[in-house]
Amino acid sequence: MDFGRVITAMVTPFDEQLQVNWDQVEPLINYLIEEQQSDSLVICGTTGEAPTLTDDEKLKLIELSVRYARGRCKIIAGTGSNDTAHAIRFSQKVENLGVDALLIVAPYYNRPSQEGLYEHFKAVAESVKVAVMLYNVPGRTGVNLDAETTIRLSRIPNIVATKDCANTDQLTRILNDAAPGFLVYSGDDSSALPALSVGCHGIISVASHVIGKEMQSMVKYYLEGNIQQAAELHRKLHPVFTGIFRVPSPAPIKHALALKGVQTGGVRLPLVRVSEQEGQFIQSLFE
């Protein structure tokens, strides 16, 4: 299964009371597909503030996303948990909503061994028929899904891809030995072009909320062999890649969206909105 080159990890729109703004879901999806050219959308991932969404909110948000996308892009739903049994139950519910794949994050806080990680992902994948994408983000989970474990997991038939935020050394080891057709996506915006250069398929991005078209151009330049143009565009976009993570995400990208007239509200505690000074810095990235 090909999820495209630029996948957006979509924010969850909130209203003034920090309830999910259901009326804003369709306009946001249309904007990301039509204006920012997202090939796929991750719903209820880290950027979607999954830790503070209830299961009922997640299910409704995923269902609406599938409906509003209308087949124009693939929908990947975040269903991971640090409780394997819960991840299985929730993944089975989401599978019935018509998603194209599930994104399963490495269990956080528990800090399992590599064998524990393998058994966790294997159990979740074998409980569903839909495609599964692994998600390795050591900076958030406290554990690294090693290259060797990812390679083992790539041989489970419906584990078809990984979103990995590790360095290019780890990405390269995975690419060298993973099962044929297994897709590797970088989860780090600033590593998008370097990741492509070692053979990754694409990027699962936060910045693509506001510079998705430019990122698609960068990827296109690279794939067509216009390396200098791709590199120049990467350097031009780099301040945005890094600047939107200057304070905890997704507060900065929600502020950047507001600057573009796309209202997605604030963030739920324990996250907080950007300060006035931080907002000015984010605005300066686009001037």
TrEMBL record:
Cross-referenced NCBIfam families: dapA (TIGR00674)
What the entry lists under Pfam families is as follows:
DHDPS
Site feature Part of a proton relay during catalysis, where: 46, 109
Which pathway does it serve? Amino-acid biosynthesis; L-lysine biosynthesis via DAP pathway; (S)-tetrahydrodipicolinate from L-aspartate: step 3/4
Q: Which reaction does it catalyse?
A: L-aspartate 4-semialdehyde + pyruvate = (2S,4S)-4-hydroxy-2,3,4,5-tetrahydrodipicolinate + H2O + H(+)
Query: Its biological function?
Result: Catalyzes the condensation of (S)-aspartate-beta-semialdehyde [(S)-ASA] and pyruvate to 4-hydroxy-tetrahydrodipicolinate (HTPA).
Q: Which residues bind pyruvate?
A: 47, 204
- Please give the Gene Ontology molecular function terms for this protein: 4-hydroxy-tetrahydrodipicolinate synthase activity
Q: What keywords tag this UniProt record? A: Amino-acid biosynthesis, Cytoplasm, Diaminopimelate biosynthesis, Lyase, Lysine biosynthesis, Schiff base
- Kindly state the subunit structure of this protein: Homotetramer; dimer of dimers.
Checking SMART domains in the record gives: DHDPS
Where does the UniProt entry say this protein principally localizes?
A: cytoplasm
Known EC number: 4.3.3.7
Q: Which gene encodes it?
A: dapA
Q: Which family does it belong to?
A: Belongs to the DapA family.
Q: Which domain of life is it from?
A: Bacteria
Active-site residues from the entry = 135, 163
Q: What is this protein called?
A: 4-hydroxy-tetrahydrodipicolinate synthase
The listed locations are: Cytoplasm
